[in-house]
């Protein structure tokens, strides 16, 4: 039986930022430290995963629809440090030279690019496997039978699949959006309903599946919960609109085919080796042997 083709999609900004923070904490400093840790993590995933496709998605900057709906969306986040911006540009150059496809579109966030790419291509190629490397919990909403999340569990990169999600939450991944709509997301400066915590939010989604169903059946809920929900209906429905991932971004027709990847070939790529040598990334060179 032929093995299923596997595609790895990497949340590039997510990985680069976490790599930058790791590099900043080191007692010793190295040039392009964020790129160093980015490559280390990427290579460790690629060595184990046997992927035939690879795509890295980056935030496009600009203004997206969420900021128009909620002006304070991500307002608490500081802008990218200049040092990191320079490393991002250098990383993109390296990816291009070493034949790794990356995606960046103005006014589009990386998680929307990922959601659109995965949703559109799993319709075209229902037998393909898609693994998403990210720490962004919003992407849990697109988990399905052939779409999994690679995330850190107990310090190790671990595949988190559809069955694990359902067992852990007792509702479908597609309803994770509804769960977050009740809770909000402090990371993105999205307020939730004060008084309804994770336990109650989970119970509501387990029982009613969607927030629309919750509001249709308010009469069946305890008075205290009903009052909290009634007073925050506009907030919850706005949250759902903001947290929903975009799945209809237009891409070049041949994008999926341009994502072809071969680990054995890439690890010998001369541009990659030259970059690692010039930056004295000796431990990465050992990983590439």
3D architecture notes:
- This protein is an alpha/beta fold.
- It folds into two domains: 6-167 and 245-283, Rossmann fold (3-Layer(aba) Sandwich), CATH 3.40.50.1010; 173-243, 5' to 3' exonuclease, C-terminal subdomain (DNA polymerase, domain 1), CATH 1.10.150.20.
- Helices cover 49% and strands 11% of the residues.
- It contains 15 helices and six strands.
- The protein has helices spanning 12-25, 33-49, 65-69, 82-97, 110-124, 162-169, 176-183, 198-208, 211-216, 223-230, 233-243, 255-258, 263-266, 270-278, 282-287, and strands at 6-11, 53-58, 101-104, 129-133, 147-153, 156-160.
- The chain has a six-stranded mixed beta sheet with strand order 3-2-1-4-5-6, sandwiched between helices.
- Strand 5 (147-153) and strand 6 form a beta hairpin.
- The longest helix is centred in the first third of the chain and has 17 residues, at 33-49.
- The chain is globular, with a radius of gyration of 21 Å.
- It starts with 5 loop residues before the first strand and ends with a helix.
- The mean pLDDT is 93.
